[in-house]
Amino acid sequence: HQVAVIGLGYIGLPTAALLASYGWSVCGVDVSPRVVETVNAGGVHIEERDLDRLVHDAITAKTLVASTEVPTASFYMIAVPTPLGPDNAPDISYVEAAARAIAPRILPGACVIVESTSPVGTTERVAEIIAELRPDIAVPCDGRTGDADIALAYCPERVLPGRIVNELVHNDRVIGGVTAACAERAAVLYTSFVKGDCLYTSARVAETVKLVENSFRDVNIAFANELSMIADTIGVDVWEVIRLANRHPRVNILQPGPGVGGHCIAVDPWFLVAGAPEAARLVRTAREVNDYKAVHTEGKIRALLDAVPDGKVALLGLAFKPDIDDFRESPALEIAEALCLTHASRILVVEPFTESLPACLAGTGARLVTLDAALRESEIVVVLVDHTAFKHLAPADLTGKLVFDTRGMLRQ
Ligand code: SAJ
C-alpha cells in the first residue's frame, strides 16, 4: 500500500477515504475488528456529512481496504486518540503503540506522519521508539548530521466535526518536519489533496500550533461564559451585552453556553498546561471556568426544579454542539446525568440526534420524548443545545413555563 492510516476514527476514516478518492492506494488500520469489518463492508461507524458515500465509493473501487494489521507502506499516518489521563495529564500510549506497530514493517524511504493532537515532543518520542526497535534504520532527529533513512513529521488535523470532509480539503495545513527534508516528504501526501496552503515548520512548532488554536478558542469561550455568570449576578442580560459590545470594531465576543464539550477544545488546552504548568495560568483558568459553567448551569436547573415541586423539566439537546450526533465530553449530557441522580422521574429529554437515551441516562427513569410531547408535559424548559430542530420554538409554545435558555437561542 502507498498509505497506511492508523486509527479509523473521526479523523482517520475521513482522511483514509479522501486519500483513496484522490487515487492513493490506502490501508486503514484499526485495533477494533468491528470497525474493520464495517469499513470493509463499505459502511461507516460514525456519523459525518458525506462520509458514508466517500467510504462506500473507495471500498467499491478497491482503493481503500481496512485491516487490523499494519502493512508495509510508503506513508504512515497516525490518527489515534490522545485522551486525558488522571490529573489531566496527556495519555499518548495509543500513539506509542502505533509507533511500535509501524516499526517492524517500515522500510527505508517511508514517511511517518503524526496527526493526533499531542503534547509537544510526541513526534520526537515516535522517533525514539522506531530508533529503538529498528537499529538498522537511520531515524531523523533534530541536529542529525548525515541522511536519515525515513522521514518523520507532525501535521495536525484542524477540521470541524460536521464539516470534516469539506475542511480536510479546503483548510490550510501546517506541516512540521523533524527536519526540513521530512516536511518536504510529508508535503507530497498533503499537496495531493489539500486546496488550502501548506505551511512548513518544525514538528515541535506544529505540535504547539495545534494546541494553541484550540486553547485560543477555549479562552475566548471562557470569557463569554464568565460574562454570563457575571451578568447573572448583577442582573443584566448577557446576550444583549454581547450583541452591543460586538458592535465595537475591535470586539468579538463568542457565545456563552452550558459549558464546553467535544473531544478537542475541552481537552487540548490541558496538553499545553502539562508542558509548562507554571506559565500556563490563563489557559488553565479558562479550562476551569468552562468546566465550572456546567456546574453553575446544573445548579440553576436545580433551583428551577425546587421552584416547581413535582414539575417536569424538558431538557432540549444532549450533543456537545448544535446539529451533530456527537455526545463526547458534552456538558449537556453531563448536566442531564447529574440531574438524573436525584430527579430522573421529572426529566424529559429531547434529542433529535439519537433514537435511544445514551447509556448513562438509560434506566434512570428519565424519558426520551419528542419536542411536542415535552412541551405538553413539562412545566420547565431548558435549552442545552441550539439544534436547528428547536429554532422554530415561539414564545407562544412556552407560555406559562419557566424557561432557561443556556444558548440564547430563543433571543435570535
Ligand atoms: N462553544 C460555545 N460558544 C461558542 C463556540 C463554541 O460554547 O461561541 C462550545 C460548543 O458548543 C462546543 C465547544 O465549544 O461545546 C467546542 O465547539 P467548537 O465548534 O468550538 O469546536 P470543535 O470541538 O467542534 O472543533 C474544534 C475546532 N477548533 C477551532 O475552532 C480552533 C476544529 O477546527 C478543530 O479541528 C477541532 O476542535 C479539533 O479536532 O481539534
Report on the structure:
By secondary structure, the protein is α/β, with parallel strands linked by helices. The protein folds into two domains: 3-196, Rossmann fold, CATH 3.40.50.720; 213-411, 3-Layer(aba) Sandwich (Rossmann fold). It is 40% helix and 13% strand. It is built from 13 helices and 13 strands. It has helices at residues 12-21, 33-40, 51-60, 93-102, 122-133, 164-170, 180-190, 203-234, 238-245, 268-275, 281-307, 331-343, 371-377, and strands at 3-6, 26-29, 64-67, 75-78, 111-114, 151-154, 173-177, 198-202, 313-316, 347-350, 367-368, 380-383, 402-405. It has an eight-stranded mixed sheet with strand order 3-2-1-4-5-6-7-8, with helices on both faces. Helix 5 (122-133) links the parallel strand 5 (111-114) and strand 6 (151-154). The site of ligand SAJ has 20 residues, from helix 8. Ligand SAJ binds next to helix 8.
Q: In one word, what is the shape?
A: globular
Rg over alpha carbons: 23 Å
Euclidean distance between termini CA atoms: 51 Å
Query: Order of SSEs, N→C?
Result: EHEHHEEHEHEHEHEHHHHEHEEHEE
Biggest beta sheet attributes: 8 strands, mixed
Class of secondary structure makeup: alpha/beta
